[in-house]
Amino acid sequence: MKTMKFLTYTVLVLFLSFAINSCEGNDGADGLDGVDGIDGVDGNDGNANVQTYVFNNPVWSTSNSYIRLVIAGLSTKVSNGDAILGYVNQENIANVFSVPGTVITSNGNKQYGVSYISDNYDIISYDPDGTRTTTADLPIMTWVKVIIIESAATTDTDGNGKATSTQQAIYSELENAGVDINDYYAVCAYLDINP
Predict the structure, then answer these.
(1) CB neighbours of 22 closer than 8 A, spacing ≥ 6?
(2) Cα–Cα nearest to 87, from 190, 186, 159, 162
(3) How far apart are CA 103 and CA 84, in angstroms?
(4) Is the link from the previous residue into 128 a cis peptide, with omega within 30 of 0?
(5) Taking 80 as the threshold, does the pLDDT of residue 173 lie above it?
(6) Is the peptide bond before 100 cis (omega within 30 degrees of 0)?
(7) CA-CA distance, 111 to 125, in Å (whole number)?
């Protein structure tokens, strides 16, 4: 009887194995690979090392003939190593002027100086005789744009081994590219900044 149970059990196991294996089908043929897509068009290179700050309708201080603009990214390290370019546009004057420099206003030419103190960017107005411009003669500003070009932290030297400052290296790069830093539109075009 034991032999009969063993044979029955063995036949049952073989039958189930055969039944399970016969239910599995063969793998089908692999499908065709899809068609590769077309590569996209490369975009314009960015300017990760250029920061632009625009101040619309800044107001002059009535006591000392200056405009104080707060730029959180401006620090001693930045002002000592990076190139900082400033430009102004005034009401009723179509031109954009580089600062520091001579600026044409509706009340005659002025000299705009620039000072960096901590995170402050100050524009100071002087009359041709060197005195501070009176409040009545200060033009209404439409906007001021400050462009900070980060230095690459490299030091260039001229033929005699004199080190060039990192700021001067940036100015030299612009000059070598034919860009006049006093020409606002040329600087914007070169740095790919929206004027």
Answers:
(1) none
(2) 186
(3) 18
(4) no
(5) yes
(6) yes
(7) 6
How far, in Å, CA of 140 to CA of 112, rounded?
Answer: 14
Rounded Cα gap, residues 139 and 104, in angstroms: 10
pLDDT at 43 over 50: no
Confidence of residue 46 (pLDDT cuts 50, 70, 90): very low
- Nearest-Å Rg of the Cα atoms of the chain is 36
| Residue showing tokens 């009359």 | 127
3 state SS for 68-130:
EEECCCCCHHHHHHCEEEEEEEECCCCCEEEECEEEEECCEEEEEEEEEECCEEEEEEECCCC
- State the amino acid at position 3 in one-letter form: T
Enter the pTM of the model. 0.68
Phi then psi dihedrals of residue 108, to 5 deg = 100, 175
- Hey, what are 100's tokens? 């520091």
Q: Kindly report the backbone phi and psi dihedral angles of residue 82, in degrees, each rounded to the nearest multiple of 5, phi listed first.
A: -95, 160
Paired tokens of 46: 């960015």
**β-pair type (96-99, 83-90):** antiparallel
Cα–Cα distance measured from residue 166 to residue 157, given in angstroms and rounded to the nearest whole number: 11
Residue 125 tokens, joined? 């107005």
